[in-house]
Structures are given as C-alpha cells and as structure tokens.
User: Which sequence fits this backbone?
C-alpha cells in the first residue's frame, strides 16, 4: 500500500465525519491490517496469550472508538507536527491492547525483560562503608525509591527504564534519543546521585 | 504534581522525535511520574519503530467486513441531519401531548389571508362566523390521511353548548360537543368536507374545504 499524504488523510477523515458511508469503508479497508498487526505485536511483546476472537474483538473496539460519539476520536487527529494517520492509529491500537491486558488482569504488563534486581546492583554499594551490603533487600528498595523521588525527571526516567522495565543502556539511548555515550554518562551520574543519597541517610 | 497524560498524537510525535526540546522534556517529566504512560510509550515505540510486522498474521477478510459494518452503522451524522431528526422527535412528543398550540410561531411560507402553512404537513386557518372565531388546524399524518383540530376563540360569545360536526357530502363523519380546548377529528381521508358549528340546534356557521396534496405538502 502506497504511503498516503497527510492531505489525503484529512480528506478521508472529513468525508467520514460528513457521514459518507463509502469513505467509512475506505477508511476501514485502509487501516484494518495496520490495526490487526499492531494488536498482535503488542500482545506478543507482552507475552499475553490471545485467540483470533480476542484479536477480532480488539480490532472492532479500535474502529468503534474512532467512529463512536459522532466520530469524536477521529476529530482529535490534527497532524500538527506531521504525524501520520497510520502512526496515530497504531498508538490507539497499542493503548486499546494495553487496556485489554489490564482488564484481563494480566501481570507483567510493565516489561518484557527481566527486571534488574536491586540487591544485585553493587554499583550502589560504597565498599568502604559496607552499609549497602548490610541492608535488607526491602530497605535497599525503599532507600532507592525515596532517592529517585529527589531526582530530576530525566534521571528518574532512566532509573525506571533500566530497573523497572529492564531496558539495556543501548535501548534506553534509543528510547530517549540519546547517544550511547550520553546514556552511559547519564547512568554514571544517576548512580553517583543515588549513592550520595544513601550515604546521607544511613 | 503529575502533568496530564499526553494524547495519542503527542505520544506519536515523541516516539518519532518530532517535538521541540521544551515539549520533549515535558513528556519525559510526565513519563518519569506516570508508570502507565511509560508502559504505553515503550509499547508504542516498539510498535511504531519496530519491524514492519510482515511476520504477523494479516487481517482476515471477514474481520475487515465486520469492521466496515460497524463503522458504517456508527458513522457520524451531519449536524443538519441531526438537528432535523431532533426537531422531528421533539415535535412528535409535543403534538402528542398538547392540543392546537396557539403559541406556535409559523415560520414557513408567507401568510395569505387567514390561512397559514406551519410546515409541509400542517395548515392552520382562521374562520370568523357571526358569533364565533374558529381556528382550524389540518395535519397530514400519513399518505392521504389527516387529523383536523378545531378550537374556538373564547374572546367572543359563549362557547358552551356548541357542537362541531364534520360532514362529507351528505354523510356525517363525526359530531363533537365543544367543551373548551379543542375538538379533534382523526384519520380523515383526503377529500371534500364541511365543518358546521351548531348551537341550540341552529347552524351558526359552516366551512367547506378540501384536503389534498399541494406543491408545498
């Protein structure tokens, strides 16, 4: 399928919002596969078991969300910064999938990777003091969480991506649009800050 | 204090690196505080910037067809059409509950003489007889069928004991005693009729008319 221009996107949306049935059909046919694949991608990545019936229901949910309430969701698309309709619809599909997963009560929605264990992370330990080693696991967790609350947004985000979601430094660099070098620098400074915090309270 | 969660477009802009520095920092501040959005961001990034999904299953045709049916049946209704349907529903409710609503302001077609066209299917006219002023409203209810409502203006002489009779040719269709309010003749087929007003067994006035389709309704 040829990539559609933003102008074509807006034209199609306008016709859909005007109640044009043919335009509604065109819209569905154009984005049906994108939505279907986005749903699968998200479910697979989150290691959530699903059936074709689940996919069909989710697929319908996304389209209903777009057209319901007089096209309220569809009207929200502005494409201000050059966002394509396809990308916007992918994000909606992802959101719908995550909501589906939460409603099903599945655990493990946070990350696909093994979370980094706090107690294994010796870089926070100040060996001269030996305090870190003596602390209980829960105490270490609490100290670090309190410490992250005092950090700026970027450091806090880095901490969450690495420890809660198990992303590697390279993956964090990609997520935050940083160079690998900057990501490592960020990590180093994060550890120093947290270490200082731990020393100050223990 | 946690900032508002970004909408899908903002998130897409962040994932695809289209935001200015200030907006990007704003989003990152939010992500550092909102676990839900952070999870969503990571999933979105993977989906948007990941592989083309060619290894995944294509959408089955029956799923697309069902979505088309859903979209068409839930598609937006233009404002003009919505207004028209709301007005029709409202009129239906009002006309069921109230008699001739003299407070209604006619808004269609210029007034010619004593006849007013209130809409495509309703005509109201005023007839003045020796002793009474009558308002007659004729409303088309379905193909070739109408309701007739007659109201007497109390401003003139007394209306008690007044009888209103509807005739077609020499045949009496219906006769009603006027008790204030209005007299109604329902499901009257199009054709020629006479309304006669009688008091004390004396006809004090009659009105001959024809109910038919016109170019206006």
Assistant:
């Amino acid at each position: 399928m040829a990539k559609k221009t933003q102008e074509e996107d807006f034209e199609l949306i306008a016709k859909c919002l005007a109640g044009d049935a043919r335009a509604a059909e065109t819209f569905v046919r154009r984005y049906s596969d994108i939505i279907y694949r986005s749903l699968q991608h998200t479910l697979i990545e989150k290691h959530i078991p699903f059936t074709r019936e689940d996919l069909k229901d989710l697929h319908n949910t996304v389209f209903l969300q777009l057209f319901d309430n007089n096209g309220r969701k569809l009207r929200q698309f502005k494409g201000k910064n050059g966002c394509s309709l396809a990308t916007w619809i992918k994000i909606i599909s992802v959101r719908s999938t995550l909501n589906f997963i939460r409603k099903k009560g599945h655990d493990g929605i946070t990350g696909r990777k093994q979370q980094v264990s706090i107690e294994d992370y010796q870089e926070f330990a100040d060996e001269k003091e030996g305090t870190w080693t003596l602390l209980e696991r829960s105490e270490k967790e609490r100290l670090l969480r309190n410490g992250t609350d005092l950090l700026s947004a970027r450091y806090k985000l880095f901490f969450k991506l690495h420890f809660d979601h198990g992303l590697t430094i390279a993956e964090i660099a990609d997520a935050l649009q940083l160079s690998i070098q900057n990501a490592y620098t960020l990590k180093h400074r994060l550890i120093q800050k947290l270490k200082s915090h731990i020393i100050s309270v223990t | 204090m946690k900032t508002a969660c970004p909408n899908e477009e903002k998130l897409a802009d962040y994932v695809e690196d289209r935001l200015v520095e200030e907006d990007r920092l704003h989003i990152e501040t939010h992500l550092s505080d909102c676990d839900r959005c952070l999870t969503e961001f990571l999933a979105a990034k993977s989906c948007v910037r990941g592989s083309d999904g060619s290894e995944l299953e294509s959408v089955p045709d029956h799923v697309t067809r069902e979505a088309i049916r859903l979209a068409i049946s839930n598609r937006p209704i233009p404002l003009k059409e919505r207004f028209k349907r709301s007005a029709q529903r409202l009129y239906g409710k009002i006309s069921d509950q109230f008699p001739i609503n003299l407070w209604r302001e006619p808004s269609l077609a210029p007034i010619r003489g004593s006849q007013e066209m209130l809409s495509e299917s309703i005509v109201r006219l005023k007839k003045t007889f020796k002793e009474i002023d009558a308002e007659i409203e004729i409303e088309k209810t379905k193909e070739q069928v109408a309701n007739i409502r007659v109201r007497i203006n109390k401003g003139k002489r007394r209306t008690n004991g007044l009888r209103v009779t509807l005739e077609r040719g020499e045949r009496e269709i219906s006769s009603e005693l006027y008790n204030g309010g209005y007299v109604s003749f329902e499901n009257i087929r199009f054709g020629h009729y006479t309304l006669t007003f009688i008091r004390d067994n004396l006809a004090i006035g009659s009105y001959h008319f024809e109910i038919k389709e016109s170019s206006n309704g």
